Every structure is written in C-alpha cells, then in structure tokens.
C-alpha cells in the first residue's frame, strides 16, 4: 500500500487536480495549497527549476483519511484503537520501488517548499522518520520538520518525545543516531507516525495493522534503519550527537511562528527514490497538518472519555482550536456531573488540551454554530465551568507560559441539566412533508441558477 495506490483511488473519484501551470517552490505552491486547503489533492506537474512533481493536500479532509483506511466515520476510532493495541510487525522485503534510483545526496535537486513569509527557509514537512535504539531493540517512527541547510544537511526539530529519547541514548554513547527519512508514504503511515503508542511500540506496526498487513519495509543501504518499500523518496541520515544549529522560525499547527531554537543537524549520506518520484508537500498550519496531528489525539480522548460516561457520540479536535488545543465532545449523561468527569478525562488523555466543551448528542460537534448555541442556551458560568490553573499545556499556544508550558485549562459543561425539565432546552423543529421538501428543493435550484 503506497501513496500512489491511494492517489489512484482518489483520482478515480475525481479528487485529484493536476496543475499544469508553472509554480515556484518559494511561496507559490504553498499559497495555492492554502487557498484550496480543504479541496482536492493537488498534483503540481510543472515545478519551476525542478523536474520533480509535487503532490499536496493529500489527507486534507476527514473523508479522505477515512477512505485511506477503508473505514466509515463511525468505524474510525475503533480501527485506530485496535491497531494501537495490536500492532503487527511489517514484512521486510529486499526489493522495492523506492530503490529504483540510488544516488549521492543533492538535496537542492528536491523541490522543498518555502511556505510562509518569515519561515527560516525551505522545510521538509511530510517526512516520516524512523530510528532504533543502540541495541536495535526499540524502533520509533514519528513526523518531524526538517530545515534545508545545504546539499547534504538538514536541521531537525526534536520535541522531547520518543525520537528525542533515542537521540539522547545515542548521544550518551557519543554516537550519531541513524535515521530513515521517508517522504511520500500512504496516509495510514503518516497517521500512525503521528500517534503516540508507548515507547517501545513501533508505529510501523500500527501502520501495518491499519493497512491490514499490507505495509512492507526495506532496510536502508547505508544506515541502520527501516523505511516503507513503496515510499516515493528516502533520505538516509545520521542525527549528529554534537552539532546543533539555529532551527526555526516555522509556522506550526496554530498558524503562528514557532520560536527559533538550537536543534541537531542531520547529515544525509544516501538518497533513494522512484524513477519518477513525487515530492509530498504538507502545508504547516493547514487542515491536513491539523487532521494528521489531531485525529490520533481525538482517538485518545474518545477512548478515555468512553471509560467514564456511558456513551460518547463524537469528539472533535476542532479546526479553530488548531486540531490540538480545543475539543468538543458530545455525550449521553446518565448522572448529573458526568459531563464534568468527561471533561477531566479528556484533559488527562491529551496534555495539550486547553478548552473542552461537553455537549449533548443533539449538538453536531463539527458545527461551531451549534456548539456556540449550546453554550448560549445550556451553560451557566458559575456552575458549569471548570478552571484548572497552572496545568501542563502546549508551548505552541503563544498565550501559554513559553518557558514552563504552563497554561490555564477551562472545561465548559454545555449539556442540559438533568435536574430541570428538558422541554425548555429542546431544539424546536417544524414538521416537514414531502410536498414542503419538494418546494424547497425547487427553490434551492432556482437560487443556484441566480448565483
Ligand atoms: Mn513512539
């Protein structure tokens, strides 16, 4: 299962648009991607100064991510939970499409995008990075941004999580950390790499479970790391245990510039790619970025909240909340207070959450107007608000304490109180008839004709 097989499927549905007009890697491609961020997949066929095509906005809608996994909206959480619980090690193969061309690194030949006005430079933003501990027992696969430095060097942002831990282990032994950097992989691999199973669980196993055993890997040629056999492009590298350079600013999920920090250098020692490889671009702060990062956390919140209330209908790490800081949860209460317990469970499941809104199941969590309506008609600040001061939040939020990451968390219980008659909280409906529906259908068609 590859990015290509997924694109074929999307193409057959008319969800891939080919861009024949020439486009520059400096701002232009990013601008076009941002203007059509929730639209179809974009294939830029004419990239100024490069003979490589760029593919963008691949997994930019929930619908495309669900169809990448062959699941319905309802089946998605369960599929993710099962795959996280039962990872399956992928088969290792010897021969692979990504091995068609092997060459010395010349990163300037890859059409890496410069996205935003004040970004530090061209950034690879769709890379899935795998590494193993010095004993080769633990493997980790995660997504990291990479700043282009020169033809064989990148700077990597290592947030203190699993890859950072492996790098620290190598650093203690005064060795560099071998990494396989894969670009252009199936969305399931991206999603698995963005999820957080415990340290020691390889996200490749999760990806393979999501793909029902159809993920295959190859061992890199020059470094001790494994990469998807059907990737478009692979960079083999070593994260330096000594050399650090300024990295950033780059726009992150919030759509604001993340700070400049000293981060390690990756030396690229070998490059493999398909003969006619596509370079996958991913717009920082765009819907695709927010979905790929946010969906695995949604699953974690769903799972945690399901343990404390009888029924969770839906969870949305909302787009306005950057797919990261805000959650809206619709649930069925059994006992007064259930919604507040649900809110606390959500905070426990995703440490970056800042605001959580709990609503009843008649509210569509994906519709901000309905959520606001629930706050307007079912919420009282003195009874229904939870305030948690000085909790661990996300430094991606510029209003959080940037040194400590401390933040104030709010939980909004916008569910109807069980202690009052529910009549007063009901959404009023007008009964429809087939005739009334026909009239509206005709009128709507005429409205469209006018526009
Ligand atoms: Mn991990």
Write up what this structure looks like.
- This protein has 451 residues and is α+β, with helices and mostly antiparallel strands.
- 29% of the residues lie in helices and 27% in strands.
- It contains twelve helices and 23 strands.
- The chain has helices spanning 3-12, 28-35, 62-68, 73-85, 162-172, 187-194, 203-210, 287-306, 338-349, 368-378, 381-384, 434-450; strands at 16-19, 41-44, 53-56, 91-92, 101-103, 123-124, 128-132, 139-143, 146-150, 153-156, 177-183, 216-219, 226-228, 233-247, 250-251, 257-258, 261-273, 278-280, 311-317, 326-332, 355-359, 385-392, 406-413.
- Strands 5, 6, 7, 8, 9, 10, 11, 14 and 17 form a nine-stranded antiparallel beta sheet that branches. It has a five-stranded mixed beta sheet with strand order 19-20-21-23-22, sandwiched between helices. It has a four-stranded mixed beta sheet with strand order 1-2-3-18.
- Helix 9 (338-349) links the parallel strand 20 and strand 21.
- The chain is globular and about 70 Å long.
- The structure holds manganese (II) ion.
- Manganese (II) ion binds next to strand 8.
